[in-house]
Amino acid sequence: MTDFDHVTAVLQELGLTVRGAFHPVEEDAIPSLDCGSAVRTMLIVGNAGPTMWRSFKADRGHDHKPDSMNRWTTKVMTDVAGRLSAGVWFPFQGPPYLPFQRWAQRAESVWSSPIGILVHREFGLWHAYRAALGFPEALVLPTDIVLDSPCLTCRDQPCLSTCPVSAFGSDGYAVAICREHIAREAGKDCMNEGCRARRACPVGREFTYEPEQANFHMSAFLSAAPSS
Which residues of 187-206 are buried (b: 16+ CB within 10 A; e: fewer)? Predict the structure, then answer.
């Protein structure tokens, strides 16, 4: 029988980590496994900081096309799921897309930040969710310590005032304005180092993405803009 520590060790070899886990209830809307069995344990898989990027780069070399991260994730996580006799799902799988943000909040203590990205007490805004593994067994899970969002005690909230084009405000995130900015010479800082608002968060700065990784994600974001 698979156990939590074994899954963690398998993922660490890939620069990935278990970002949290839970025993689903009907309201979680977890798909059934291919065998028809219900999922009794859901593990959310993701990354924090640059560790995953180094594994991806070592495997993919210079293949930095916008979809290469998703293709790599699909390949390695499908292999992991086969080794662990688990089901696997991805946040980029769709439409319709699966409720990964809701699953993530079920799995660990994360909260919506003022700029919309889920914030973690240790990793800040420098983390992401890459896949979910579903098991037919009820695995024994570590106890998650429920804490408060670090945003509640962040008086200045620099993430809201640092964006050079004020893309974050009371009306939400102005995606088109952000994309237009990073496509221009004036947006090179955000393009090459990562979102300036994200970098302004004082939490988890030691997990900030390396410039090459930040540029990869910003380039993928820019290329995903709908054609006019």
Answer: beebbebbbbbbbbbebbee
Q: How far is CA 168 from the centre of its chain?
A: 20
Residue 67 inside a domain? The answer is: yes
Burial call 142-157: b when 16+ CB within 10 Å, e when fewer: eeeeeeebbbeebeee
Q: Provide the residue range defining the domain that includes 191.
A: 151-223
Could you give the residue ranges of the DSSP H alpha helices within the chain?
4-12, 51-60, 68-84, 100-107, 175-182, 188-193, 196-200, 211-223
Listing DSSP states for 107-167 in one string gives HS-EEE-TTSSEEETTTBT-EEEEEEEEESS----PPPPP---GGGG-SS-GGGT--TT--
Condensed to tens digits (0 to 9), the pLDDT of residues 116-172 reads 999 999 999 999 999 999 999 999 999 877 789 999 999 999 999 999 999 998 888
Same domain, 155 and 144: no
Residue (of 87, 113, 85) closest to 101 by Cα position: 113
What is the number of other CB atoms lying within 10 angstroms of the CB of residue 65? 14
pTM over 0.90: yes
Residue 90 and residue 103: Cα distance in Å, rounded? 12
